[in-house]
Design a protein that fits this description.
By secondary structure, this protein is α+β, with helices and mostly antiparallel strands. It has helices at 6-13, 19-26, 30-37, 44-54, 58-63, 111-116; strands spanning 80-91, 96-97, 103-110, 125-131, 144-148, 157-163, 166-175, 179-183, 192-195, 203-213. It is built from 6 helices and 10 strands, in the order H-H-H-H-H-E-E-E-H-E-E-E-E-E-E-E.
Length: 216
């Protein structure tokens, strides 16, 4: 079942109980929930709160794809997996200093969707936020990305990398001679090259971005 529009998906979750009760369960104000029902788009932090409180998958809540809550396939206890969400952000800009990864919650995804559509093992996945504008229009500040920590071998794609104490989300391209071109999708930012055979001291590819939630 595909439910078009965030307000309509929100109404599906609110079938039982009052608006005030649902708002309290989600940890948001009733007035804010009313704005969402009128067409206002929630930020990712509020989207996560609603998904967690409703025990529905973030992919369905954000996009309408996947199984909705209460579908016949749900209920075995194994249909949904919870991917850890960390406070740390990957910068699409000048770099976010990484001091410590702090898990602030988890996000539900339909396990079949992850395995069949993303071809990933949920055990290898993490979620973090994006900050900055260098990857626009592909990724915007505040977007949430799903990171596969097992995919660290560079091919063409978007990756999260650590460089000089900062955490970046960038498009990487493998060049001849074991060079890695680091590309920003925003043409206002210049690309640069890293020598894979002699990388900087503080450099590591942390994983590949396999999905993003772009709700702005």
């Amino acid at each position: 079942m595909h439910v078009n529009g965030f307000p309509e998906r929100l109404k599906v979750l609110m079938q039982e109980g009052s608006l005030a009760e649902f708002a309290e369960r989600c940890g948001v104000s009733a007035s804010l929930l009313h704005k969402y029902l009128k067409g206002s788009v929630p930020g990712l932090d509020k989207l996560v709160l609603i998904a967690q409180a409703s025990q529905c998958s973030l992919d369905w809540l954000a996009t309408g794809e996947g199984l909705p809550p209460g579908s016949p396939q749900q209920g075995s206890g194994q249909d949904y997996v919870f991917i850890p969400l960390y406070e740390v952000s990957a910068s699409a800009g000048s770099g976010t200093l990484v001091e410590e990864d702090i898990q602030v919650g988890s996000v539900a995804f339909h396990e079949g969707w992850i395995r069949q559509m993303l071809r990933a093992n949920p055990k290898h996945l993490e979620m973090i936020y994006v900050r900055g504008e260098s990857m626009e229009p592909t990724l915007c500040s505040g977007d949430m990305v799903l990171l596969n920590r097992r995919m660290t071998e560079v091919t063409e794609g978007i990756y999260v990398l650590r460089l000089d104490g900062g955490l970046f989300v960038k498009r990487l391209h493998l060049l001849p001679g074991k060079q890695i071109r680091v590309i920003s999708d925003n043409p206002s930012y210049e690309s640069f090259v890293i020598q894979a055979q002699a990388p900087p001291d503080d450099f590591a590819v942390l994983g590949r971005v396999i999905w993003s939630s772009h709700v702005h």
